[in-house]
Every structure is written in structure tokens, then in C-alpha cells.
Design a protein that fits this description.
By secondary structure, the chain is mainly alpha-helical. It is 77% helix and 0% strand. It starts with a helix and ends with a helix. It comes from Zancudomyces culisetae (Gut fungus).
């Protein structure tokens, strides 16, 4: 497999239902009946599912999970000697990867507007301001290069395979820069949340109920921070892997890291 094909099969950014005969109420064990979700909880879960899939980001997150977990499934099937099935799953994973890149074709314009806004209103902290500017620059370089890669890989624009390869590699390098810089932002956010928690606990004039509510909000943000950190940490080896012309990083680990990143993003989005 050429290096161009390897990038095609790894995006630098499904269930068959069984319709069994329903059991009558008398046949359903009492324990299972008691475990059924109350209507209010069912409605809440359905509302969250609808909200999750009502945005492009949510749909992309779901496709991402299928794509990367597909790599793990391919590895497991190959280990069991089921190569034909593994090939089919691999094709599905590659198709989803390709679709996700295509779906991002117009993302550059909102990114550009957002970057202009952040440049006009930078964070007060000088370090965070510099990090934000560098992240904006890295993404404004990443997206055009990814477009060149995608259009070139599909022979839509007349470029050589080497140009396609270089565009894919350099786009991932700029993505890797964004990921590394994001650790600085995450560290700053964690320190700010811990300081906020300390201030709440040191308040003398706050009643117990009010303090508990404020602490609960901070704890919720700290929990979200952990998943954001997990998402960034999982992306780090992937961006490094795709930034190299030759990498020995196995596809199954690409699948594992991508799945972890997808789960972390999904939990925060949920």
C-alpha cells in the first residue's frame, strides 16, 4: 500500500437489529419489569439523542466512533482468520473517513471568521493569547492543505501523488501543533477551576446549600475537563503518526486512540 493510500484510509480528523418475537407481559421476569426506565428518563434520553444528532458535530462524532472502532474490529477479525469480513469492515471505515473529510470542506469559512474574532478579542493572559493565535494560524494552514490532499487524492485537481502525500502530511503536522498547544490551554483551565473551587470553599458568608450548588457546578466542569484532556491526549499519537512519512504505528492502535478520542468527545457532547 502506498503512503498516499495509507493517508486515504486514515482520516487526519451500524448495527443489525434482531427482531425477536415479543414476550407477553406474563413471560417478562419481574426484575426486568422493575428495571424499565420511567417515562421521564426515557424522554430525557430521547431528547439527548435527538440533540446529539441534530448538529453536524454530533453526527461527525458518531461516524468517527464507527470509523475508528472499525479499525479495531478489522484487527480482531484478521486475528480470527475472517479476512473477507475484515476487508468489508475496512472498506466501510475508509468510506466513512473519506466522507468525514468531504463534510469538512466548508469548515474553513466559519473557522476564518472565528479566528478573526479571537484575534480582535484575545484572552487577557499573554500566554493564552499567544496560544490562541498560534492555534488559529495552525488551523488556517491545516484546512487548505487537507482540501488540497482530498481533491488531489480524488483526481479533482491535477496534482502529483507526491503533492497529495506532502499536503496530507503537512496538514497533519499543523494539526499536531494545535493538539500540543491545547495542553497549555487545558492546564490553564484546570488551574482556574481548582482556584475557583478553593475560593468557594473559603467563603465565610455563604450558606451550605449555595456553596454545594457552586461546588457542584465546578465539579461538573472538572469532569468535562477530564474528558477534554482524554480527547486531546488520544489525538496526540495519531497526529504524530500521520505527520511522519514513514510510521510503524499499527492500525489497531489508530483505532484504539481514535475510539478513545471519540468517546471522550461524545461524553462531553452528551
Amino acid at each position: 500500500m502506498s503512503e498516499v493510500e495509507k493517508i486515504k484510509n486514515n482520516d487526519p480528523a451500524s448495527i443489525a437489529e434482531k427482531h425477536d418475537k415479543a414476550a407477553s407481559p406474563s413471560e417478562v421476569p419481574a426484575q426486568i419489569t422493575r428495571l424499565r426506565l420511567p417515562p421521564s428518563n426515557t424522554k430525557l434520553i430521547l431528547a439527548r439523542i435527538l440533540k446529539f444528532f441534530s448538529t453536524p458535530e454530533g453526527c461527525d462524532n458518531a461516524l468517527m466512533l464507527i470509523q475508528y472502532f472499525g479499525n479495531v474490529v478489522v484487527w480482531l477479525l484478521n486475528k480470527r482468520g475472517q479476512k473477507k469480513t475484515a476487508g468489508r469492515v475496512g472498506k466501510l471505515s475508509s468510506m466513512i473517513s473519506d466522507y468525514r473529510i468531504m463534510a469538512r470542506l466548508l469548515d474553513f469559512f466559519p473557522l476564518y471568521l472565528s479566528s478573526i474574532d479571537s484575534l480582535k478579542n484575545p484572552p487577557k493572559d499573554k500566554l493564552l493569547s499567544a496560544v490562541s493565535i498560534l492555534q488559529d494560524i495552525s488551523m488556517m494552514l491545516y484546512y487548505p492543505l487537507e482540501r488540497i490532499y482530498w481533491f488531489g487524492a480524488h483526481n479533482i485537481i491535477p496534482v502529483s501523488d507526491m503533492t497529495v502525500l506532502k499536503a496530507g502530511i503537512y496538514s497533519c503536522r499543523f494539526w499536531a501543533v494545535w493538539v500540543v498547544l491545547n495542553f497549555i490551554k487545558l492546564d490553564s483551565a484546570r488551574k482556574a477551576l481548582l482556584l475557583q473551587k478553593k475560593r468557594i470553599m473559603s467563603k465565610q458568608d455563604s450558606d451550605a446549600e449555595s456553596m454545594q450548588k457552586e461546588l457542584g457546578q465546578v465539579d461538573s466542569q472538572l469532569k468535562a475537563w477530564k474528558y477534554s484532556f482524554g480527547n486531546t491526549l488520544a489525538y496526540l499519537p495519531l497526529t504524530v503518526h500521520w505527520s511522519l512519512e514513514k510510521s510503524n504505528f499499527p492500525d489497531v492502535l489508530v483505532g484504539v486512540c481514535g475510539t478513545i478520542a471519540g468517546v471522550c468527545a461524545a461524553v462531553n457532547r452528551w
